[in-house]
Write a structure and sequence with these properties.
Layout (H helix, E strand, L loop, with lengths): L4 H15 L1 H4 L3 H21 L2 H23 L8 H15 L1 H4 L7 H15 L16 H14 L4 H12 L7 H17 L4 H20 L1
Helix pairs in contact: 1-4, 3-4, 8-11
């Protein structure tokens, strides 16, 4: 019989859960810090361009997925296992790629995104706000980019767009990611020099943006 490494990984996780006393005490919430750490280690490997490191770190992230699925398989309320996780993923990806699986045509990345967003909107009809489903635990800069996109969907953020336009008029907007990195570091240094918390400052501003979005929606 041909070897199935993914199935072996599932069985290895099950054996560890059965026989390792430390693993037996872990629940979903206790695993979160490890998932965050492994995700950041994978990002480091990707950015370094080291294929061997990336292969290893992808495995570590996969182990976290297997771990959560194994814990869930033993739950008394709404249990599911790795096969269920994989089946749900396949169903979602087939729905969101109608140009691959359902006869739609998408000859540009923009059209692919339109189809993806349409499928996603159909799945999430019960959501009352464009903010529903946004992970607040994302790093503040990633969260800012996400919320700005959501704001644009409901016509919020004209003041931010105007500020960007005005800054561009006087050459104060970076023209590359490298320049953007320099500017962000400079702003962080300014925050540090003034005793401010740069992370908190951005998150507090994002809360105001969320309030603006919800006000428009209501």
């Amino acid at each position: 019989m041909e070897r199935d490494p993914l199935r072996e990984a599932v069985e290895t996780m099950r054996a560890v859960r059965d026989r390792c006393v430390w693993t037996q005490q872990i629940d979903h919430r206790a695993l979160v810090p490890y998932l965050v750490e492994e995700s950041h280690e994978l990002i480091d490997a990707i950015e370094s361009g080291d294929a061997a490191d990336m292969r290893e770190e992808l495995g570590d992230v996969l182990w976290q997925v297997l771990f959560h699925a194994e814990i869930a398989s033993r739950a008394t309320d709404a249990p599911f296992d790795m096969d269920d996780v994989a089946a749900t993923l396949v169903e979602k990806m087939v729905r969101r790629h109608p140009h691959v699986f359902a006869g739609e045509t998408a000859e540009t990345p923009e059209r692919v995104l339109e189809l993806w967003n349409a499928a996603k909107a159909a799945e999430k009809r019960q959501r009352a706000s464009v903010l529903d489903g946004v992970a607040r635990s994302m790093p503040s800069l990633a969260l800012a980019q996400k919320l700005l996109g959501k704001a644009g969907q409901v016509g919020v953020g004209a003041d931010i767009a105007l500020a960007v336009h005005d800054a561009a008029e006087v050459g104060a907007v970076p023209e590359s990611e490298e320049e953007l990195g320099d500017l962000l570091l400079t702003l962080t240094a300014a925050a540090r020099a003034n005793g401010w918390d740069a992370e908190r400052a951005l998150r507090e501003r994002l809360r105001l943006l969320e309030d603006e979005i919800r006000a428009v929606e209501s």
